[in-house]
Write a structure and sequence with these properties.
This protein has eight helices and 13 strands. By secondary structure, it is of the alpha/beta class. Helix 1 runs parallel beside helix 2.
Length: about 325
């Protein structure tokens, strides 16, 4: 089938090098966890599907390495499944972190992997967007991996899905993590939060309100399709994961002429990896220097003061 790429009136693409943020999602859909709120839980890819994902990822890494347009690049891997249980994602992160023209390479992950491979990475450029899934991993195992990242000097944020039954776990996690590590909470899809529940979650994540309500986006300015793009395993480029109209292909360069300011065609945006790029929201300032890995420029939470020690009688 012949694809028709989206053409919009306006000037051609960038005249020279730029800073381009890329969200890459290949065909990988398998995951080692069985979360009831995830459609990809315990899904298994065939050997052929895994090979196709590896080949696609290696092609993408080669493109970033070659950097045909001389851009500054930042990359976030957003796999449907869990990438870090696959050696080719570990190699990709290491390789891209060591490229001088890559400002940041990050991945969404459940951290269900060993961390020794990070010894070869540039720790100033690699980062993690980690999710804690109660019932899938023990508290101690997950916290040990967070400690391992911190001990290695690697930037990371940690988050959870804000299901009512997870509040106690979230409170434990917030208390267990260093205050400077951002704990984000994603609103559970389809769940309506009464005011007190929203307040409880917001006490842990001051930005939770952004996740609770969809953001009006129709006709509003968004950086996607201009300085942010979504790339599929075959190289097809879209403005973001939530707008299906293609802009071109990464590997033949046809996407380049389509990069320009453009309004959002969707009615609303309710996912962080989408709405963070809306110019109508202040989130680029909030996450300055950490947009892809979801790390705020300044800590948003401080530990409550310890109560005074009780007086000793006599």
């Amino acid at each position: 089938m012949t694809r028709t790429f989206l053409g919009m009136p306006g000037p051609a693409g960038p005249a020279g090098p730029m800073h381009l943020r890329i969200l890459y999602r290949g065909p990988l859909a398998s995951c080692n966890y069985d979360c009831p709120y995830c459609p990809f839980a315990k899904r298994r890819d065939t050997r052929e599907q895994l090979r196709a994902d590896r080949v696609a990822l290696e092609r993408f890494v080669d493109w970033v390495t070659g950097n045909p347009h001389g851009d500054r690049l930042s990359v976030l891997f957003t796999p449907w499944g869990e990438g870090l249980t696959r050696s080719w994602y570990q190699r990709a992160l290491v390789t891209l972190s060591r490229l001088a023209h890559v400002d940041r390479v990050a991945i969404q992950t459940n951290l269900a992997c060993r961390l020794d491979w990070l010894a070869d990475a540039d720790r100033q450029r690699i980062a993690f967007w980690a999710t804690y899934h109660p019932g899938q991993v023990s508290r101690s195992a997950f916290l040990d991996r967070c400690t391992g990242l911190r001990d290695r000097g690697i930037r990371f944020s940690v988050g959870m899905v804000g299901l009512p039954g997870h509040l106690a776990e979230a409170r434990w996690l917030r208390a267990a993590l260093p205050a400077e590590v951002y704990l984000w909470i994603n609103a559970a899809e389809g769940y309506r939060y009464p005011p007190q529940e929203e307040a409880d979650w917001s006490a842990l994540d001051p930005l939770f309100g952004y996740s609770v309500r969809p953001h009006p986006s129709a006709g509003r300015s968004c950086r996607t399709g201009e300085s942010v793009i979504s790339v599929r395993g075959d190289g097809e480029v879209r403005r973001c994961h939530f707008v299906d109209a293609p802009l071109g292909n990464l590997y033949d360069g046809s996407y380049r002429a389509a990069l320009r300011p453009r309004p959002c065609p969707q009615t609303s945006c309710d996912c962080h990896i989408g709405y963070v790029h809306l110019r109508t929201l202040p989130l680029y300032d909030v996450f300055a220097g950490g947009v892809l890995e979801r790390i705020p420029a300044e800590p948003l939470w401080s530990a409550p003061p310890c109560p005074p020690e009780p007086a000793v009688a006599g």
